[in-house]
Every structure is written in C-alpha cells, then in structure tokens.
Amino acid sequence: MKTKLRDHIAEIVSFSDQEFEYIIAHFHYKKMKKNQFLIQVGQQKVNKYFVLSGILKSYYVDKSDKEHIIQFAQPDWWITDYNAFFNNKEATINVDCITDCELLYISNEDLEKLSAEFHKMEHFFRVKSNAGYVASQERILTMLNLTSVERFNHFNRLYPNLIQSIPKYLIASYIGVSREMLSRLSKM
Questions:
Q1: pLDDT tens digit sequence for 104-119
Q2: Which intervals hold domain Cyclic nucleotide-binding (predicted)?
C-alpha cells in the first residue's frame, strides 16, 4: 500500500525515508465494495483519492436521469469531485466503485499542509493537476471533434485494459453513444 504511493510520487520527485513517513501519515486507507459510493451529489466534504486497486467512475446524472461519465480511474490514478475538493463546495458529481477498490485518500487541508511544508509535494501535486487538465481538455476536444467510431477507437487506444474490465454500457456513456451504437461499433 505505502510502496505503491511512494513509487507513484517518486516518478516525479525524490524524498528521504523520513520525509515519506511524514507524507504517508497524511493519507488514510479505505476499502470499498463494488457499487459503493465514494462521493455523492450533495456531499459536504470530499477527499482526493489515489487508487491502489480497482476501477471507479465519476459521473453526472442529468435532469432526465441519464448518466454522463466524466472519468474512469484505475490503479495509480487520482479521482475526486475537483470543484468540491478545491473550493470546499458541495459535491456536484458522483464517484462510485465499478469493482472492489482499495484507496488512499487525503483531505484538502492535508494536501495544502504538505504542499506548504514540502516544495517537492507542491510540485508533485501541480504536475498531477496539470496532467489532469490536459486529459480533460483532450476529452472535451475528442467529444467535440470526433465521430462516434473515432471516439470508440480512441477509447480503445487510450484504455485497452478497460475495454475488457468494465461493462459496455459504461463505455457507451463515456464516449457519448447508445448501448446499441456501441454494440455496432464493437463489431466493426
């Protein structure tokens, strides 16, 4: 558990054993079952989660009760309701477990504390946030510019392991097509 986070952080910054012990003390472990909610719309306080094992999704449910998947998260990825987390607001999206999951989480207060105390951790969190912004922009542009066939092929290239690990209706929601259309795309 600790090793996975340490290796993940070490991809960007280095630190001593003593520094890491202080850093890991700000994280907490959580085990979740398939279909359990990690974050629900209206929740007052949310944390930022690092995925040790399992697969999660963040999504929005519109007024017609249609689910729109914003993000999947798999091992070594981060997930939260970013607006709620960074701005101390009520959650506006849901995050739940597609599979059983093991997670480490940190509060915004502890993230800010670590960032203030360790320039290296501030750098780490900035690099991870920037990567998330880039991925979000690419996702928006993909949805705006690509056909449904191109979006399906793009998803397969980006996330080849997810295609076999999650239900097809979730992939359909993520790429913005119906289940029937996804079935046709899968046969092409």
A1: 999 999 999 999 999 9
A2: 30-116
Alpha-carbon 149 to chain mean position:
24
Four-residue CA torsion sign, 120, 121, 126, 132: positive
Six token digits for residue 49: 């989660």
Superfamily of domain 2-145 in CATH is Jelly Rolls (2.60.120.10)
Query: Could you tell me which residues come within 8 angstroms of residue 81 by beta carbon, excluding any fewer than 6 positions away?
Result: 39, 43, 46, 58, 91, 92, 93, 95
For 143-153, the pLDDT digits (tens) are 999 999 999 99
Domain limits, the chain: 2-145
pTM of structure: 0.93
Q: What strands lie across the sheet with 37-39, from one edge to the other?
A: 37-39, 94-97, 56-61, 67-73
| Number of C-beta neighbours around residue 118 at 10 A | 16
